[in-house]
Design brief:
One of its GO terms (cellular component) is cytoplasm. This is Pyridoxamine 5'-phosphate oxidase. The protein is an alpha+beta fold and about 240 residues long. The chain is built from 7 helices and 11 strands.
Amino acid sequence: MSTNDGPATEAPFDARAEARRLLRTSRWGTLATLDRRAGGPYASLISFAADVDGAPLLLISRLAVHTRNLEVDPLCSILLAQVGAGDPLLHPRVSLTGHAEKTEEPRARRRFLACHPDAAFYAGFADFAFYRMVVHGAHLVAGFGRIVDISPEDLLLAMGEASGLLPAEEEAVAHINADHADAVALYATRLLGRREGSWRVTGIDPEGCDLALEEERARLLFSERVTSPAELRIALQQLATRARG
């Protein structure tokens, strides 16, 4: 499995992998809700993060029109698009459909703020709340002939046998950023070809880890799926060895 977080150019096209990459590296998206007054679609710009299984996480204010719409009808859609040079329509994007549910799960708060540190300033305001999207389906457009419908089962990670990894994620992220910052930088620069800088890990899941430097986001895949803290340590050590070699 490749560790490159960009679209594959030589390997066969993998729609599931590309959609998952967009989920993990997108910070902003367009949220479409049903207008509670007119009944038609209402689109707005939102900040975006992914839960450990890839499900969308939102931090939105009840003062916003889209939040009031969701309180009446939780059905919604989110468009995530990769921004780059040239024609925007030539870049990959994925549309997610589902419904939004308010969540007080501490992991949702932690993972969202890891992706959007500046949001910590207003995350505690009384009118703000975290929401998790229950995905019903996805539609990927990744270029000519690469238009694919993706089921929730193929888009999101199954966490069953990897449930032991969940309680260890927060400590693992803190540990690697505090004690192995040099390895994280090598992951980004030598394994992913990204620019030099103080890269940090924002999240870990069975398939890989998410990296951040200022406004940039990158996705690093493990060679094998990890389901426990012990397997995670081995996977990170293997990546560090590759990066240093």
